[in-house]
Design brief:
about 140 residues, alpha+beta, Serum Albumin, Chain A, Domain 1, 2 domains, 5 helices
Length: about 140
C-alpha cells in the first residue's frame, strides 16, 4: 500500500481519471467503487465495499442520474487504446454467453431461448464480452 491506497485503488484512479462525471467527488467515488470490486471480484457489492457507509455510497453513486455509464466506458476505452498502442501484437479474445431468464417472470424484452430438450421455450439474453491481451497481459475488456 502506498500513501494509504491499495494497488486496486491506484489502478482505478488511473483507469477512470479521464471519466467526465461532472464533479470531482464522483471521480473519487467511482475509483472507490471500482477498486472495491476489483479487490473482491466474486463478492457482492456490500461485501466488496466492506462497510455500510461504503456500500451506501456505492449504491448512491450507481443510481445517480448524473453518472452515465458511457462516461466510465469512454475513460476505460481511452486507457485501453493507449495500452494497445504500445503492443506489437494483440490477441483479441471473444465469448458470447446465452443467459436464461426463464424463471424471472417480470423480465421483458428478451428473445426466445432454444435448447435441444426445450425448443423455443423460455426467454434469454446474449452476453458478449471481449478482451485484448498483449505480451504483458490484459490491456482491456469490452462489451
Amino acid at each position: 500500500m502506498k500513501n494509504g491506497q491499495t494497488s486496486e485503488h491506484a489502478w482505478a484512479v488511473e483507469e477512470l481519471g479521464q471519466a467526465d462525471l461532472g464533479d470531482p467527488r464522483r471521480q473519487r467515488r467511482a475509483a472507490q467503487v471500482v477498486a472495491a470490486v476489483a479487490a473482491h471480484p466474486t463478492a457482492s457489492l456490500p461485501r466488496a465495499c466492506g462497510t455500510w457507509a461504503a456500500t451506501k455510497g456505492a449504491y448512491r453513486f450507481l443510481s445517480n442520474p448524473a453518472v452515465q455509464p458511457r462516461a466510465l466506458r469512454a475513460a476505460h476505452q481511452a486507457r485501453t487504446l493507449e495500452r494497445m498502442a504500445d503492443q506489437p501484437m494483440l490477441l483479441l479474445v471473444q465469448d458470447t454467453t446465452q443467459v436464461d431468464f426463464t424463471t424471472q417472470r417480470h423480465t421483458a424484452g428478451l428473445g426466445p431461448i432454444h435448447t435441444r430438450s426445450r425448443p423455443r421455450q423460455g426467454h434469454a439474453g446474449r452476453l458478449g464480452r471481449g478482451a485484448a491481451v498483449g505480451r504483458g497481459g490484459p490491456t482491456g475488456v469490452g462489451a
